[in-house]
Predict the structure of Helix-turn-helix domain-containing protein.
Amino acid sequence: MRRSSFASMECPIAGALERVGEWWSLLIMRDALDGFTRFDEFEANLGIAPNMLTRRLRALSDDGLLERVQYSTKPARYEYIVTEKGRDLRPVIVALYLWGIKNTADGARNVVLVDQVTGSEIVPEFVDHHSGRPLSSMRAEFVAGPDASEEMRRRLNPDSRRTRRDRHKAQRSTT
């Protein structure tokens, strides 16, 4: 059965996917964060059908990631300006960029990330705010937070997780 909404899931990742998990949404936000603001720019850049673009722009505006601002009355035309909430998505876009370079680009450097002021290439690294350690070197895991339901606490129970890890280790060693 196909899931139509992640809204009832108790997970910040599911909540984020509810808003931007559709692939066009992330590509529209990528372009908006790069300074594109108009319907025709998004349409030309992405090769997206106008009806799909209309739906995605409406959803991104309704979710507060873009602000729809009229710039012409005859005919009525709008720009889509990135909001603070939309700017908060930039690290996610950069993380997808990094993952794509490492895992899909076959070494091609078709796109690079640069500082707008200096023009210097940026080599981003995600680090833990408290320790300064790169996230890629940490053994991070999700645990139930203070507001988690009993179901979420059961699912993320560290003891159950260790049992699953042990089971996977045993399977790998026998193959």
About this structure: The CA atoms of residues 154 and 160 lie 8 Å apart. The domain at 12-103 is CATH 1.10.10.10 (Arc Repressor Mutant, subunit A). The mean pLDDT is 86. The chain has two domains: 12-103, 141-175.
